[in-house]
Records
---
Amino acid sequence: MATERAAVILERTGPSLLKTCDSTEAQDSGEGKVMTAYLMDCRRKQKIMCHQHGVMDDMLKLLAGLESAEQFLNEPCPPNPDTEASTPWKALKAEYLEQVQEVEGMIGTLVECMEELLKKRQRLEALLVDLEKKKEECKEQERAALQSKQRAEKLMNLQIDDSLQRAQDALRACDRRLSELKIQVDDRLAKASNWMAFRDRLQATLEVTQANMQYKLLSASPSELCLELLPRSTQQSLQPLHLSITMTKEDHFRLQVFQGTAGLLEESVEGPVRELSAALLEVMECYISQGKMLAEIQALHSRFAIDWCPAKRLLIFLKSATTVCHLELDEGYPSSGCAKLLAVRKDGNLLNLSALQPIVMNPTLTDWLEFLSSYPDF
């Protein structure tokens, strides 16, 4: 059957280019490898001839379309036909290499351990082969001089058995190590499952948060999320609240609130992941509870040159380059507290506040700023 297939291949590859040979003689004389190399070389030559034939065909088509020798000299070179195919191929190859590097980076440690164990196993197998050879040599020597080397043979057999026992012990140790590695792999898979469960819990937290607020995901990474939150349950036009959530390997989080123009005190909250939802709700409740005050301050930012210090509940109003006003807001403002003028400095000197009082009773922060900005005496 092999000779018949070889003959059929020779007929298909081109009878005019190949020489016939007696396949029976090649098989009888042990020239199968030579025949295979010969066929592969013929196939390679045929591929080269087909490629040259295609090039010659393109050249003939090009020359057939030319009207004169001057046109041949002035025409630009035709594009390389492989360019269109090589560009997507290179892109696919680059994508493949990038994915291969990513996978290799994730399992690099495990692969190194497996390679080390395989090397040890190969050394032990080689040792076993050497021991078997020595055993055969001992048997041959025993046949030649059985009586004179009987005691030496027994001693040698004991040594070989001891070596075999050590080798078997080493193999069992390798098997135990392999089992430990499998357990580690299962542990890694369990951790991955825990991360998936954590992702589900975070999704549930976002759904609960979404029920009370609008949110926008600004950026995301394996360990950090940056969000922009805007409460739904308040009627005030509050600006979005920016915060970031950083995850640690110990299933803990760190919630960082950024003040920006929102007016909320900048702070950070840390704790286990299961308390992330409660921390988010607590931050939003704090933001909503001060909604009226913060909405008023945020609206005044566009009208006056002010600076709000939430830690001291102090608002600084810069009326001019030389005049600075300090106002304080009581706890519970504007429902239960009021806005008070603490000091006015002009050219670094404190002014008398007795004449500085708006016409309205219990003036709000907006009333104070409108009054101070229109007051003509400073």
---
Amino acid sequence: MALYAISDLHLALNGEKPMDIFGQHWSKHDEKIKENWIKIIKEEDTVLIAGDISWSMKMEEGLMDLEWIHKLPGRKIISKGNHDYWWTTISKLRNLYEDMDFIQNNYYTYENWAICGTRGWICKGATGFTAHDDKIYNRENIRLTLSLEQAVKDGYKDIIVMMHYPPKFNENQETLYTETFKKYGVKKVIYGHLHGAGLKNALNGVYDGIEYIMTSCDFLDFNPIKIL
């Protein structure tokens, strides 16, 4: 039994969003993910998927991509990304598959670890940050706090947070998210969202006692990374 992570699958199995427009390494990337996943993930393993699951705009369209994930080995814990417009009511999502859990103001467990999280947003101080961004930024921190409060209330001390957006962009930056991590004793943070030139800003390593792990699938060469 092991815990893995990967994010930004950007599935479009209906063929409407070819990913190779972002570079040849994205050509048939779903086949690469599937091949690598099957090689390393066993049915008893758990995989964290931190957002940008599907390009679909509606749930009915996204079901093809969710079904593809469902058929892969292992249990999956999924959080929302900025492109997941198909994401519908949480109760409907939780009733889809026994092997797929969806985080929204709640948490799940892996052995003695609590898996918490939220989508996140661009952080204050980013270029072009607006009052509208500030509203979403604060709202996402509230959702993160709700997730963490439940886990801590239930007695969990080993906590992993999964976010889509980077919770900070350099090792010295303090954000609402990093303050919340410290308040609740978070030990590991997995995140994605960054691609291409943006990957130069990816934080990987331990900062202020918290391990940050970048999981965008192109950063990982389309291989799930072992977390525990």
---
Amino acid sequence: MSRPTGLVASKGIELLTWSTPNGFKISILLEELKEAYGLQYTMQGIDIMQNVQKEPWFTAINPNGRIPAIVDHDNGGLAVFEGSAILSYLTRRHDPERRFSFAPDSDDYTRAESWIAWQHGGLGPMQGQANHFVRAAKEKIPYAMQRYVGETERLYGALDTRLKDRDYVVGDGRGKYSIADIALLGWVDFAPLATIDLAKFPAVLAWLRRCYERPAVKRGFAVPSLGSFSAYRGQEPEAADKTRELTKLVDQAKEQYGYKYASP
């Protein structure tokens, strides 16, 4: 894949993304819209390890210098960034039958907004910080590790409670698959990166497997390429060994600071 230097499409949706939890939420929705309605889109892989997202052409699209972002060439080249805003925009314009969303005047629309905001302001940032301090930080800081892993576990407990008697996060009865689920999928599937064992949250794990049965979900997780960590597909032996090693460090940090799991 060549290094992008600017937009390449002249019509339709152009997706600028990478294989991250936030990136997957948009590629999954676009694949669902493609399957349901025939919506076509153009994708460019933005390698965040090479800081492509910091280049001037990209920050002209997203001033925050983060993926994902889309440009709607059929709407005057409108740029939309931040995952929750993109999910809302795409379903407003391209989901006329509300297959993946809810009518704006319905209570479920508001419930979906609540859970998407919960992901955007809670699960994503907390799990992201857990990922950083457990995996990326050169110095392993016990307090930071137990603080962010613990808060991430608390949030998974809240989600597990929500899903105990439901198939999907929002909707009548047992729920309807929607952008409330799509917003969560990438983060939940990447749980092992933060040493989160989804076996402790059986309703969440069952939900993840249920969603992964959708062909568009599988395709979306491969845009632009499959991630290295997956609670659904599992990890390569070397990665699994590293996760076990890091889990021991996190457990030691929890013991050091007297961490006790509680949710909510």
